[in-house]
Amino acid sequence: GAGVSQSPSNKVTEKGKDVELRCDPISGHTALYWYRQSLGQGLEFLIYFQGNSAPDKSGLPSDRFSAERTGGSVSTLTIQRTQQEDSAVYLCASSYSGREETQYFGPGTRLLVL
Amino acid sequence: EDQVTQSPEALRLQEGESSSLNCSYTVSGLRGLFWYRQDPGKGPEFLFTLYSAGEEKEKERLKATLTKKESFLHITAPKPEDSATYLCAVQANSGGSNYKLTFGKGTLLTVNP
Question: With bands split at pLDDT 50, 70 and 90, how would you rate the model's confidence at A16?
Fold first, then answer.
């Protein structure tokens, strides 16, 4: 079946602009995660959605970052007033439920802030 | 704080030359240890989950093992198509956020023909 999809695959923006990254999870998966992968660093947890529960936003690095999930499916990660240090690969993952379940990753969005 | 350290950072092998990758971890109660493979420009691809010390899992030329402090990914007679970055991650069994994965920085494996 279809895996996790993300768009755009690449995004180049200018410092100070806002960007929106989209994630479509695997159909039927209730849990959705965003991670960030910076050059030379491990994947870093950003935010977690599970069903209709309040999201865990504990990994968001600043208040310029926000995310929402509409209808329990598609999610959008928004970065306002982008900075050069925001340049990274943003990965989305989904799982059948939040615990003891394998997380399956999408191909990522490569963000470059000039 | 949960921590994952992978070694070596990079490993170059000749085709057919077996070796092992190491993943050392500290976690406040292990729920699961995960191995992923990541090809350039792609997202991580799930390989294995290990839950308890002594557990082993195999897939083709790969075998993952787990102790209370570390995990090994053994690669037997590797082929060039095994070249990738191998990521290790842990999921904690305690606290309110026992769903997030904590990743190591990965081992870049290159297998030369």
Answer: very high
